[in-house]
Structure formats: C-alpha cells, structure tokens
Design a protein that fits this description.
Blueprint (H helix, E strand, L loop, with lengths): L1 H9 L4 H7 L8 H8 L7 H10 L4 H18 L1
Helix pairs in contact: 1-5, 2-3
Length: about 80
C-alpha cells in the first residue's frame, strides 16, 4: 500500500525525476524509487522525509505515508 500511495503522490513526475532531485540523499536512485513503488523497499525515516518534501506532500498525506511505512516495518519485524 505504501508503494501505491507514493506513486499516487508522485503524479506526473517520473521515477527518474524524483531520483535526480534526491540524488543528494543516500540510497535514493531510480531503482530504489521503483522498488519502493513495487513494495520491495521501505525508506528509512530520513529518506522518507526527503521523498515527501520533494513530492510536496501535505501534512495529511505525509502522516498517511508515515503510517503506511510504519505498518510495513511492523510486519517485517
């Protein structure tokens, strides 16, 4: 669900565009954005905050993304 939500927030921007604009963030590449949207990777807190900031997520959207990420983390542990 997190991946689909991030993809929706990404809108018309490409995965490459997101990755290019976040190239200063450790671990963010086009491949990791693709893996995130496919549900194969969950960003750490810092990475998530950079992604949400670039996507201009509203406070409500950011809270939803954080909640979805925490649910993935709980299931994974």
């Amino acid at each position: 669900m997190l991946g689909a939500y991030i993809k929706r927030l990404r809108g018309q921007r490409t995965q490459a565009e997101v990755a290019d604009n976040l190239s200063h963030v450790r671990g963010i590449t086009q491949s990791t954005i693709s893996r995130l949207e496919a549900g194969e990777w969950v960003p750490d807190i810092g990475q998530m905050e950079h992604i949400l900031a670039f996507l201009r997520a509203t406070p409500e959207e950011a809270a939803t993304a954080r909640l979805l990420a925490s649910q993935v983390a709980i299931r994974g542990s």
